[in-house]
Amino acid sequence: MDRILSKVTGEKKPNRAPAAGGEISPPRSLTRTVHWHANVSSRGLKTAGVLAMSLSPAEFRKAMGCFATGVTIITLDLDGEVHGMTANAFSSVSLDPPLLLVCVDHSAHTHAHMHSKKRFGVNILAENQREISDYYARPVHTHDQAEEIAGARFDRTEKGTPILHGALAYVECRLQSAQVAGDHTIFIAEVEHVVVRQGEPLLFFRGKYRHIGEGVG
Ligand SMILES: Cc1cc2nc3c(=O)[nH]c(=O)nc-3n(C[C@H](O)[C@H](O)[C@H](O)COP(=O)(O)O)c2cc1C
User: Fold this and answer.
1) pLDDT tens, position by position, 154-202
2) Of the candidates 28, 45, 64, which is a domain's last residue?
3) Residue 137 CA to ligand 1 centre (angstroms)
4) Going by CA atoms, what residue is nearest to atom 7 of ligand 1?
5) Pure H helices in the chain
6) What is the extent of the structural domain holding 110?
């Protein structure tokens, strides 16, 4: 019988680990996973092979980058100011009740804001909003220049959450739970309000922005 035994060695914090390879800064360190292939007979362990696989953050990001996603801007109200962050580690979770999740790096400012505000919006970008994605993917981005540099303009919902002009869809959420997962936190939130508009999405695939192509059906 063939079995695979695995061990993680020298584990250090990777820089960023989004669900779909969205973040663009280089890895700080390597996480190495070593697998041994072992032959196990009825009389016990007989032979052990050598290294079968190693994994770095860059390799993990490359693999996850094969999973094409849309691009969102997470928005929060900070004492009357708009705070935004580009995110693609985003997914629906449940229909009843309506839940979604977003994974946020512990080093992002948004991480602390999500914990303190407990309310946020998710704006799903349209194909012409690439500059807005780039703008809110920078570590330092003040709201003052968002319109001038990236053409980002916002209204407010009844609850005061910023809603981006021209986004394909807007989802307003209330934080339900937060689960630490490695260097990110999975924020699960209940959806309270949605707005859907016509148009085509901005996509992200293999570290680059894309437009949607022809249907295949
Ligand atoms: C396409 C794309 C997707 C991203 N997805 C995420 C994500 O899901 N989670 C995350 O923590 N950072 C993600 N980032 C990186 C953040 O946008 C970036 O670190 C940002 O500067 C954080 O801003 P803040 O410090 O103001 O919160 C993504 C970046 C890009 C370009």
Assistant:
1) 999 999 999 999 999 999 999 999 999 999 999 999 999 999 999 999 9
2) 64
3) 5
4) 87
5) 57-64, 109-117, 130-136
6) 69-211
